[in-house]
Design brief:
mainly beta, Neuraminidase, five-stranded mixed beta sheet, 5% helix
């Protein structure tokens, strides 16, 4: 689905000048003079998924065209939900053997098998601070095939190949709502909440640790001057990192060879976001599968629009549209004669060709 890109900037709370934000939040980093810009939000459809009424985290699938994943906040069942870009419910996928203390975010990326996309669901919240969690859990599974045709009759099934990863912080328990996967290294990043105006810690589990499994000791990689990060994502190219809270969001540009923590130590650019009253308790944010824009979703509405913010600044990456998209209908002829000379032309209609 091609989404329109509006060249006008979205002028909501998140685009207040830094000085104004400083008055409200006591601390505000200087914003970069130049960086990626994104336009007004476009609603791609209305999300109305039975059972999904607190969408705390969200990710856009990179294997299933037009498919999104989300989950409820604390108190829900150990399951995740698939829905279409137009909002229809595609499936409910249970996490067998998992618990659900406080799911806060999810991500997608590399895993043990090369070339396979894995879903990572983060049970990383504090569950209303009782009891204190000595370790947090990440649930990992190969992303299943999901088809838009499932909208006609959504499925409910178990998520196959589920693995439980236990992680500990090196400096005591934390409450975290942001989970991100670096597509370049396969490392997992967690950004815990912190009180304003302090910076938030950046914690990493390496790809090797994730593959080995067992109890993983996270390493503290640095700090980012962004408090109350309720969601985050790293672009499919690995070159941009976004964090959001209810009323504002920022993006950091990652230079070649730079680590995620190194990029987050730099100067961010402000991102347009909707916020209240139209987006109640907005937490979820996710890049599209190509990194051309990002989507947002609220934590507090059972029925709501899926909003897309398209890029308005030049994008250095080459856009690669798939030759044959998932769900396409194939026609072939094996009678022997060669097809017409114009068979490769975009206007050629295989239905009109008969041998």
């Amino acid at each position: 689905m091609k989404l329109p890109i509006n060249t006008e900037r979205f002028n909501y709370f998140s685009l207040l000048p830094c000085a104004a934000l400083g008055l409200l939040f006591d601390s505000c980093p200087l914003l970069a003079a130049e960086g990626p810009t994104f336009g007004d939000p476009v609603s791609t459809g209305t999300v109305n998924v039975p059972g999904l009424d607190e969408a705390s985290g969200m990710i856009a699938s990179r294997s299933n065209d037009g498919v999104f994943w989300s989950h409820n906040d604390k108190g829900g069942l150990p399951r995740i939900y698939a829905f279409a870009i137009t909002g229809e419910h595609l499936g409910t996928y249970n996490l067998p053997g998992a618990t659900a203390i406080d799911y806060e975010d999810m991500t997608v990326g590399p895993g043990p098998i090369s070339g396979v996309d894995y879903l990572y669901v983060g049970d990383t919240g504090d569950g209303n601070k009782a009891p204190v969690r000595e370790s947090i859990q990440i649930y990992r599974a190969p992303e299943p095939a999901v088809y838009l045709s499932q909208a006609a009759s959504s499925v409910e099934t178990d998520l196959s190949g589920l693995t439980t990863l236990s992680l500990k912080y090196p400096d005591g328990p934390r409450n975290a709502e942001s989970l991100m996967m670096d597509p370049l290294t396969g490392d997992l990043y967690i950004i815990p909440l912190t009180k304003l105006p302090a910076a938030s810690g950046i914690y990493r589990a390496t790809k090797e640790q994730l593959i080995q499994g067992g109890t993983i000791m996270l390493s503290r990689e640095g700090e980012v001057t962004f408090a109350v990060a309720s969601g985050g994502d790293i672009s499919p190219t690995g070159k941009e990192i976004v964090l959001r809270q209810e009323r504002l969001a920022s993006v950091w540009v990652r230079e070649p060879g730079q680590t995620v923590a190194g990029a987050l130590a730099g100067i961010p650019c402000s991102l347009p976001i909707v916020g209240k009253p139209d987006e109640q308790n907005g937490e979820a944010i996710a890049f599209d599968p190509e990194g051309w824009g990002y989507y947002t979703l609220s934590d507090s509405l059972a029925t709501q629009p899926l909003r897309y913010f398209g890029r308005t600044s030049p994008f250095a990456e080459t856009r690669l549209d798939p030759i044959v998209k998932q769900g396409s209908e194939w026609l072939y002829d094996d009678a022997g004669p060669l097809p017409p000379e114009d068979w490769y032309a975009p206007t050629f209609n295989a239905r009109l060709f008969t041998s």
